[in-house]
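Subject: Protein entry, chain in single-letter code together with its fold tokens

Category: Structural biology, sequence-to-fold work with a learned token vocabulary.

Notation: Tokens come from a learned vocabulary of local backbone shapes, not from coordinates.

Start of record: The labelled sequence and token lines come straight after this line.
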Amino acid sequence: MGCFCSKVGANSTVTSRPGKEAPTKQYSKPRWKSQEPVTAAKLQRMQEEFWDTQPHYGGDKAMWDAIKAACGSEDMDTARLILDTAGIIVARADMTVMYDERGVKYELPKYVLAQPSNMLRGEEAEQQLQHEQQQQQQQLELAQRQQQAQAVQAG
């Protein structure tokens, strides 16, 4: 016998029990604010990571492909057409919960649906990117120094 609900990760769940939420015809991409302002590059990495890993945890690949296409569409008419054609039922007005025709639940984090209201742009984004690169470089240098110290102690 299968499990009722599989926790996929911090961002999503695939459930095989429909009916928890009623379908809605009035939906749109969410407006949201991230806890920490993000750059376009970081948001893109987060989205790519989600789409690269999510389908492997459950649900139908064709449904995931349709959901991804709808999320990537520029206008809501196209998104609705894609979802309707694939037989996907949107259960929440912010599009974060959907079901396929078999009742499999697909949950999406808001960051794959829309950009946050506090996204860093222009000079602010460039400064943040430089800061992140400096932090990564410092962490790399620290790790190298630690490895060298361990090699000296061992030798």
